[in-house]
Amino acid sequence: MKVLRLLPLSMAVGLAFAGTTHAQSLVELYESARAYDATYQSARSQYDASLARAEQARANILPTAGLSAGVQRSEFQNNNPVTDRYYGTQNATLSASQPLYRPANLAAYEQGKRQVDIAQAQLVAAEQDLLVRLSQAYFDVLGARDSLTFVRAQKAAVAEQLAAAKRNFEVGTSTVTDTREAQARYDLVIAQEIAAENDLRVRKIALDQLVGKNNAEPRPFAAPVALPALVPEDVNTWVLQAEDVHPGIRQARASLDVAQLETRKAEAGHKPTLDLQASYSVTNNLNGSATTGLANPDFRTKVGTVGLALNVPLFAGFSVQNRIRETLSLEDKARSDLEGARRTVAQNTRTAFFGVLSGHSQVKALEAAEASSQSALDANKLGYQVGVRINIDVLNAQSQLYQTKRDLAAARYNVLVGGLKLRQANGTLVAEDLQGVNALLAR
């Protein structure tokens, strides 16, 4: 009977490690997802666009230069004395301007740099979201595969129990009730197997869609499974880390800076502007002009200028004052958004921390429950052989054991994904964090 009891477990182990030769690790699939995922690529493009937009704002504080040229041909007619002739003009002008005092342009340049900070924070948030989504999809496939493995192992065990019940009924040592109970449990496990197969199929489709590969095969856990400890163990430490690094807080802080700079731009509406301007022009007159006649048919004029251009606003219909009121209100809004982001991050971090802490405790409890369920199954099988237990007791013990195994596997996956979600919650999640999870997988 000991050999028969170990048969389903050996099948489970064999199925769990089947196909690992061509399986991909979590890090390998992350590299594929990073190059394929549309959401992450969108954030990357937005970041690149923000860099270009910042350079556009920088152009407003740099010098500008331009070159213009023209050619004209004119006809001159006069009655007294009778004159009818043509003359032409060729001109070229090179001009340059350097802003010396334009506070609005300087504020816009600073805003462009803050917009880059916002886009960078959004890109970090998109990368962290991709890490969590990939890890969740990865372990969803492993969890569905484990469920199918345990269901099939339970089916083999129930089939064994059904065969034993039929043999005992044929020799008259048990009633037909035992056979019918075993048959009912076997039919139920068949239905569970069909559902588990479909769930695995759906989970694999979701993972394939995320990484851009067909038939991606995640690696299972290496045995024995040793989950990483939660470090640091103080929830306040996790919350304090979020203040400086969380992309949501960084984005809200940069948005506040943008709002404050917008107020500076509005206040610049009252201030003068000063530019340094220079130009050099050359004009060629061919065949004279309308005033010189033919005495001097061809001549050239060269003009160079350098100067300062001052513009002082006097009155704009109170638009500047109202614009300042608007930007001050938007500053208050941005300040409130920053405080709201801090509170949300702190709450999410605490929730994720205690979720991981509870998950570790649940894994330990389920490990003890697995050992107890195995002992209970062994005792019920022995009791069934000596006649102190009935067939339904053995079937219930089998069901409890494999349900505990499924719950334990799911709890381990939840702890690992929960650890990544905790780092996402406080903003410290990076791609290197996958290495620690990857080390737990089979080679």
User: What order do the SSEs take from the amino end to the carboxyl end, as H and E?
Assistant: HHHEEHHHHEEHHH
Structural class: alpha+beta
Mass-distribution shape: elongated
The largest pleated sheet is described as: 4 strands, antiparallel
Q: Major sheet: order of its strands?
A: 1-2-3-4
CATH architectural category: Up-down Bundle
Count of separate DSSP helical elements: 10
The percent range for helix content is: 55-70%
Tell how many strands the DSSP assignment holds: 4
Highest CATH level, the class = Mainly Alpha
pLDDT average, as an integer?
Answer: 89
Looking at CATH, the homologous superfamily is Outer membrane efflux proteins (OEP)
What distance separates the N and C termini?
34 Å
Supply the number of structural domains. Answer: 1
Strand fraction: 5-15%
Low-confidence stretches: 1-21
Radius of gyration over C-alpha positions, nearest whole angstrom: 39 Å
CATH third-tier fold name = Outer membrane efflux proteins (OEP)
Please outline the helices and strands.
Blueprint: H1 2-16, H2 26-36, H3 38-58, E1 64-79, E2 82-101, H4 103-171, H5 176-211, H6 235-245, H7 247-267, E3 273-286, E4 299-311, H8 319-386, H9 391-425, H10 433-438
Notes on the protein architecture:
The chain is an alpha+beta fold and 443 residues long. The protein has one domain (2-438): Outer membrane efflux proteins (OEP) (Up-down Bundle), CATH 1.20.1600.10. It is 66% helix and 14% strand. The chain has ten helices and four strands, in the order αααββααααββααα. It has helices at 2-16, 26-36, 38-58, 103-171, 176-211, 235-245, 247-267, 319-386, 391-425, 433-438, and strands at residues 64-79, 82-101, 273-286, 299-311. It has a four-stranded antiparallel beta sheet, with no helix packed on it. A hairpin with a 2-residue loop joins β1 (64-79) and β2. The radius of gyration is 39 Å and the shape is elongated. The model is unreliable at 1-21 (pLDDT under 50).
